[in-house]
Amino acid sequence: MTEPASLLAWIAFVCLVAVTVGSAVLVVTLRNLFHAVLALIASLLGVAGLYLMLLAEFVAAIHVLIYVGAVATLFLFVIMLTVRIDDAALRQSNRQVIPAIALCGAGLALLLAALLAAPWTPVEEIRPPGVQQIGHDMLTTYLLPFEVVSLLLLVALVGAVTLARREDQRT
Amino acid sequence: MIPLAPFLVVSAALVAIGVFGALTRRSALGILMSIELIINAAALNLVAFSQHIRTSDAESTAGQMFALFAMAIAAAAAAVGLSIVICIYRNSKTVNVDKIDLMRW
Fold this sequence. Notes:
- The structure holds two protein chains of two kinds.
- Chain A is mostly helical.
- Chain A has two domains: 1-89, Four Helix Bundle (Hemerythrin (Met), subunit A), CATH 1.20.120.1200; 130-166.
- Helix content of chain A is 71%, strand content 0%.
- Chain A has helices spanning 7-29, 33-53, 57-82, 97-117, 131-138, 143-164.
- In chain A, helix 1 (7-29) runs antiparallel to helix 2 (33-53) and helix 2 packs antiparallel against helix 3.
- The longest helix of chain A has 26 residues, at 57-82.
- Chain A is globular, with a radius of gyration of 21 Å.
- The relative contact order of chain A is 0.08.
- Chain B is mostly helical.
- The longest helix of chain B is centred in the last third of the chain and has 31 residues, at 62-92.
- The interface between A and B is large, with 83 and 69 residues.
């Protein structure tokens, strides 16, 4: 039987949730998009911490590498390239804020009611797979998806370069 | 270890916030960021379920593997989406989706 979480674990969990959800709210409400990306980075780091609390340390490390290292940097570059400075003071939300809040609140209430009422039966003892197990499975059971994803990444990146390249440099 | 339900609540909250952002942001970049939040919530759910609920040890890595694949696909989506944003900006000098009505009848 897995031992119940200690008080310290709960405190860490609550702090991580506060960082994750609070930064996520900032991501969708901040007017300056540059600040929104910084909040997105904080939120993603919080999610990485949640992965650590789930004893999934490999996913946490890869999450930080891919999202904070690559995706957030890409966002920062594109914002530098496209958003003008005088745009930062403009209103960044459309006129549908009130209906959107109502819709998302209703969806959230529905989700919470469903998942808190569901009878989850967790395993007796949690034995998280290590990095070794993940590496082994990735190259045996999940070999085909692994190769397909690598092909997808290649195609996506070539496509991204082709789209972002200027037309008049095609000589 | 923290039980399963709190992680699901966090994940549901992230989805709701992400959908709110995708519905209300005017900038295409803001919408892409909200979509990243939603994908994160889904991956968090997958890992939480795989650590807490499983039928055999043979499938113990399934959820984490799906989360890794989801991350790779999200990275590809972000790369293509952002280069489309650069393309749109080059053509119409704006990234606000309410200004981009080229394909609206």
